[in-house]
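Person: At home tonight, work slowly through the protein below, taking as long as you need, and write a paragraph about the fold.
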Amino acid sequence: MADVLDAQRGKPEDTSTPTIIHGPESNSGQGFVSKAHLDQEKYLISSGIAVVINNTEFHNNLKLGDRTGSDVDAASLFQRFQELGFDSDLLNDATKDDMEDKFNEIKNDKKSLENAGCLIVALLTHGNEDSVFMTDESVKIKNVMDYFNAENCPELIMKPKIFIVQACRGTGLGSGVNRTVVRRDPNQADAAAEYHEYDKTHGEVIRIPNEADFLAVYSTSPGYGSFRNTEQGSPFVRYLSEELLKMKKEDDFYKVLTRVNKDVGLGYKPNYAHSDIITQMPCFISHLTKDLYLKQKG
């Protein structure tokens, strides 16, 4: 029985022959993937690349306000990534061309990419549900991530690519309810090998989706705004930075992000001139294929 898309019933099945991973200089070899790496339960990260794009001022034609306080976020994340041993870079007030130049610089440094076990891109800017703003124009988040997908950047195949987005995803305001927390009696207790070491032996052909091994981390849920304090930066980045600082080697990154969700969603009360109960709920979307432990050095 043929597999068909729900939205395209009746169209002929794709009968093309699946190909071995291609790319001129893939970290997985000349079109090969090591089965040992495929079967690993966690990503191995001995080094990484991190880029923080911090946009605070925008061209007048965009009619966007200055993002005062974002420099605090940028400095905090940059420091955390350096502490993790990542080769880090900070771009302030980047145009679309600036972003593309930086991404192309990363992609063209094949040796660094092959040695890197992880890529992190943090985008601190204005945005909407599916786009973020560089200083001169908006860019689809999908297009930003596509720079490093399996087809466009084979050196990062089977390596985690994390995109952290501190930006609004709409104009809505998160709502919720107030509940009193009943405190209990204080006396009661509460219940392997590196990627570039590959096996060139021919084996079973597999298909790796372009979207594989991506993790998108958002400061807020789709359709809602994201708060930022003009002096202290954004609550999302502040809590994320704190959790990264406290992160232990045995902490899967899912656990870290779940704590951030709780910190912001349950612990942050926006000081916003509005009569309703205002909330902010971060979220993350995972296409990861292995467990992710960021703190593997030191």
User: Anything to note?
Assistant: DSSP finds seven helices and ten strands in the chain. The first strand starts at residue 48 and ends at 54. Residues 8-30, 185-201 have pLDDT under 50 and may be disordered.
